[in-house]
Amino acid sequence: MSDAYEVAVIGAGPAGYHAAIRAAQLGLKTVCIDRWIDAAGAPVLGGTCLNVGCIPSKALLDASHKFEQARSELKPLGIKTGKVSLDLKTMQDHKTQIVKNLTQGVAGLLKANGVEVQLGSARLDQGNVINVTDNLGVEHQVTAGAVIVAPGSKPIDIGACPMDGDQIVDSTGALAFEAVPKTLGIIGAGVIGLELGSVWSRLGSQVVLLEALPEFLPAADRQLAKAALKLFGEQGLDIRLGATVVNRHQNKGKVELEYSDSDGTHTIAFDRVIVAVGRRPDLAGLCGDGVELKLDERGAIDVDQHCQTSLANVFAVGDAVRGPMLAHKGMEEGIMVAERLAGAKPQVNYDTVPSVIYTHPEIAWVGKSEIELKQEDVPFKVGVFPLAASGRALASSETAGMIKVIAHADSDRILGVHVMAAHGSELIAEAVIAMEFGASAEDLGLTMFAHPTLSEGLHEAALAVSGHAIHIANRKRR
Ligand code: FAD
Ligand code: NAD
Ligand 1 centroid to 38 CA: how many Å? Predict the structure, then answer.
């Protein structure tokens, strides 16, 4: 006999647990099934984001940034610290405790909202029957009127340098190093490469990033990417572009990476290597015999704009479907699907998904870049405000970076905002709100911002679109 639910959610990562909580809040009888087992062998909720993604990486980014500040940035402010040294075990324990608090918090939220949680691996069989195999191997079935599939993603491995879980690791391994590698190679200078490269570089590693593409951060604004590449170099990240790893040898405790670039073939030895070349949907074991979930050309579950799959009453959200692999994008999709199941008609606005790289300064953007607008033949104008001209940035020694507002040349509607700044992840939220409300650059320019704040930089960049910024030299007089 099987248990019957109105909604069954497969996966309790951010996309799945948001879907489950919202469905239960709306009065739907909901079950959420997850198979995650942590490093200590215990089942935990929260998926990649809470266990080995957003949260532990930000805990280490924040702690390593404070270490770096204490070591080298406080003296000019008149703060004497004595010799600063690292206790990596305590830093890692601190990270683990944060993860534990949050994953337990998700379990508490699901319970408080009346979601039933089942621990085990779910397989979608025909007729919306879900076969659940618990961690002891015992199977049972549940049925549901609607199924929301949120199985997430996993790291991509490359043949030239397969991971061994010890010297050659993925992001999960790199979040758990018990000692600071003297030399650290990172394959891929994308989001994970830069964030984890920053962590270990601040803690003392010599970090080299080998990036296959000739261009740095192609999805980011070109002006910002160029400035970021220079700054990260000054911070100690050795970023080599156009570098393709062709082979690896493990020799006397070192990993020798052989890579080729426009100058030929090179070999470089590291104590440890992180492979950070992207992630792919994790669909292992998801579909039973005869269940044919259509996939797109990238191997993601094919969905329409409302996350409907090719199967009736089966929806898919989060990293397993098209779009950026970001926690907040999955969360909004989960909520949208739950609300649509309850009869409402919300949409996700995919034009205003913010992206953030949590380096220091942070790089964040929303909407279109200048290159995209040129490709689409959309006329635009640009306002840029360098943080070096911000009183608050100067007062808090955070002058690196800039804020750029791009608006339509005729309507003045904001089309994109690009930020490289301390707290860029917070600043970009202001731009997302403005764009959600269809604001023009003039609207932002007419809005009052508290002084002194970094947010004033957004105000000034919006004013700069029409040449009216106060704190930078403008040519326009009216
Ligand atoms: P996941 O979080 O991957 O959750 C999927 C869940 O489904 C898992 O718990 C898994 O056990 C479960 N599952 C899968 N298949 C089954 C099955 N058949 N049966 C039962 N359970 C199943 N994003 C950001 O927005 N900001 C960040 O700062 C950020 N930092 C990151 C840092 C790192 C190092 C990494 C790796 C990722 C980061 N991300 C970040 C990306 C973010 O983690 C993902 O976008 C997000 O977790 C995706 O959510 P999801 O719910 O789709 O999938
Ligand atoms: P990514 O796509 O950001 O970067 C991968 C990089 O590796 C790219 O620059 C790519 O050109 C390069 N690459 C690919 N194959 C290569 C090869 N063989 N040799 C050298 N370079 C190669 O992917 P990621 O950094 O692995 O992150 C995975 C996902 O996790 C991303 O989609 C990202 O959105 C998400 N994530 C988000 C955050 C955040 O929001 N701050 C943080 C971490 C991860």
Answer: 14
List 316's β-bridge partners, or say none: 149
**Sequence-distant (≥ 6) Cβ neighbours of residue 104 within 8 angstroms:** none
Whose Cα sits closest to atom 7 in ligand 1?
11
At residue 377, the pLDDT reads: 98
Cβ distance 184 to 208 under 8 Å? yes
Amino acid, res. 218:
P
HSE-up of residue 295 (Cα within 13 Å, Cβ side): 13
Report the C-alpha gap between 100 and 107 in whole angstroms. 11
Q: Which of 94, 249, 451, 459 is catalytic?
A: 451
Give the right CATH number for 168-277 from 2.30.30.30, 3.30.300.10, 3.40.50.150, 3.50.50.60: 3.50.50.60
Closest CA to 141 of 149, 126, 129, 151: 129
DSSP state letter for 71: I
- pLDDT tens digits, 338-385: 999 999 999 999 999 999 999 999 999 999 999 999 999 999 999 999
Which secondary structure element, helix H or strand E, spans residue 281, and what is its range? strand 279-281
Query: Which residues in the chain land under pLDDT 70?
Result: 1-2, 474-478
Ligand 2 center to 213 CA (angstroms) = 12
Question: Does residue 213's CB lie within 6 angstroms of at least one atom of ligand 2?
Answer: yes
Q: How far, in Å, is the centroid of ligand 2 from the Cα of 257? A: 19
Structure token digits, residue 8: 């069954």
At residue 437, the pLDDT reads 98
The helix-helix angle for 14-25 and 327-341 (nearest 10°) equals 30
* 18 a catalytic residue: no
* Domain topology for 352-465: Enolase-like; domain 1 (3.30.390)
Give residues with Cβ within 8 angstroms of 179, minimum separation 6. 88
pLDDT 10s digits, 157-182: 999 999 999 999 999 999 999 999 99
The CATH classification of domain 2-155+280-348, taken from the options 3.90.1150.10, 3.50.50.60, 2.60.120.280, 3.40.50.11750: 3.50.50.60
Residue nearest to atom 47 of ligand 1 (CA): 49
Does any ligand 1 atom lie closer than 6 A to the CB of residue 439?
Answer: no
Res 477: pLDDT: 56
This prediction has a pTM of 0.97
The two beta strands, 414-421 and 402-408, are antiparallel
Give DSSP secondary structure letters for 413-463.
BEEEEEEEETTHHHHHHHHHHHHHTT-BHHHHHTS---SS-TTHHHHHHHH
Sketch the domain layout of the chain as residue ranges: 2-155+280-348, 168-277, 352-465
Nearest partner of 228 among 202, 190, 277, 262, judged by Cα: 190
The single-letter DSSP state of residue 70 is I
* Cis preceding linkage at 452, omega within 30: yes
